[in-house]
Amino acid sequence: MLITVMSDASFCPTTKAAGYGYWIACDRGKIAGSGAFRVDVPSSGVAELLAAVNAIDRACKEGLVEKGDMILVQSDCLSAVKAFSFGRNRNSFCDLAWQGMLHVFNLRREIGFKLKGKHVKGHSANISSRFASNNLCDQKAYEAMQKDKDSKKHGKVRSSKESVSNNKSSK
Prior knowledge:
This protein is 40% helix and 27% strand.
């Protein structure tokens, strides 16, 4: 079965606040969600990659992915798409991004799914469902990043335990 995972991230280079949004769809169900990363993210590229990692993790935890399935990761970040299409070696990633990729590799080994990446043009006025979904992910990522930024202003501490995100999903 084909599982479409669309994700986007929003990143503030000044505060290192970052958020993500995702949309997952397949014949087993659909899930949308967003969250803020629990750790400071070093760059927008890493945020984009981790947005996809979190979406894949959510799809697996919700039981949408089974052995033999193909996960099509769609992102407006070409480096994230390439990471999921071609793998990459350890030297291609910072430690945080590599931890995310290892998590996906472990899920893939445990469940037995395949991965493929596809680039989506970001911030497009195109009204097709693919672009509309990307724009929704972009909006949700921006909102999550703004909340993260606000929490930093008010001195709230974010935990870095368990995963790299504060996830909010809806079915």
